[in-house]
Amino acid sequence: MATDMPGKKGADTCIIEAGPDAGLRLFLGVSGYSHAHPRHLRLDPALGAPMQFPAGWALIEHPLHGPILFDCGYGAAARAAMGRGLRRVYRHVLGACCPAQADPSRLLAERGLRASDVRTVVLSHFHPDHVGGLREFPEARCVAHAEAWRQVCDGGWFDHLHAQIWRELLPADTDARLRKLDVQTQRPLPGALAAFGCGWDLFDDGSGIAFALPGHATGQLGLALTVAGERVLLVADAFSRREQLDALRPPPWWVHLLAIRDSRACLDTLQRLRRFRDDNLGAWIIPAHCAATLADWQRRHPGSVLGMVSADARC
After folding, report:
1. Whole-number pLDDT of residue 151
2. Across residues 190-213, what is the average pLDDT?
3. Per DSSP, which regions of the chain are E strands?
4. How big is the chain by its Cα radius of gyration, in Å?
5. Is the pLDDT of residue 11 over 50?
6. Residues with Cβ < 8 Å from 299, sequence gap 6 or more?
7. What is the dihedral of CA 271, 272, 275, 279, to 10 degrees?
8. Are 216 and 200 in contact (CB under 8 A)?
9. N or C of the chain: less Cβ packing under 10 Å?
10. What is the C-alpha separation between 194 and 188, in angstroms, rounded?
11. What is the pLDDT of residues 136-153, one digit of tens each?
12. H helix count then E strand count, the chain
């Protein structure tokens, strides 16, 4: 599969954004959840402990390019892996739960979609709660940052352990199906997105613009969309709870050691996202694990959240 960007535009030419009505529909999916104490994120203990973090992903229904996924949550492969060896430690420490009824392919079936209907899966990064469902979509092409894939291919056992890369979750033909986004093919971002530097026009029409979100994981990507006239940023694990955008406090050192690739880059990304929020009132910034943001999206767009969203959901 080709790894370059479509079209022949120069590297210094800004990406052109799609108009306010690109015809996209956005559904947020939840394929399980994990838990953490507020102090792990330096948040107010009054938020409750333990806090529940949905394992979020997104379905974008594109009028030209069909169903597109941004990540794919946990799935059957991740559920099986968490029953073996060191993966059981991950499940225990995070209180991770991913019941079969929340597998992404099952949730898509509720919308009348087959797994084979999914044409593209954009992978923000390769942590198990973002790629665990990938085997359910064997016909989709994949998109990821070239540096993230290089770490998957070249990293050793300890590097993969620290980076939370579980190779067994990835189909054997991932490389053949993967479009790799690299610095040679990125272009300056337009308008309000310029604060994030450069990015990639995934469909050469401005309807899906990928951009780097450094810090949490090597090569982490976000995705900018326009949905029903509203600007939406899907920002994966740039932060976990929206309160972190206001606090701008780094988590404890041991959380950095265990879960963050580059603490300075992580804080810089948070600052850029906060500036974007403050300069673009009404825009949506949607991280993968914020239950409050999910609830707000559901209120704004009824029926647009797939899967478990209640605070008392159980396996």
Report:
1. 96
2. 94
3. 25-36, 51-62, 66-70, 120-122, 141-145, 178-181, 187-188, 198-201, 209-212, 221-227, 230-236, 284-287, 305-307
4. 18
5. yes
6. none
7. -170
8. no
9. N
10. 7
11. 999 999 999 999 999 999
12. 11, 13
Distance, CA of 269 to CA of 19 (rounded, Å): 26
- The amino acid occupying position 37 is H
Which domains are delineated in the chain?
25-303 (3.60.15.10)
- 192 phi/psi in degrees, rounded to 5: -65, -20
DSSP-based helix, strand, coil % in the chain, nearest 5: 35, 25, 40
d(CA 33, CA 141): 26
Q: How many Cβ atoms from other residues are within 10 Å of residue 28's Cβ?
A: 23
Q: Over the stretch 85-110, which tens digit does the pLDDT of each residue have?
A: 989 998 888 889 999 999 999 999 99
Q: How many CA atoms lie within 13 A of 155 on its CB side?
A: 19
Q: Sorting pLDDT into bands at 50, 70 and 90, what band is 47?
A: low
Beta partners for 284? 232
Statement: residue 312 has pLDDT above 90 = no
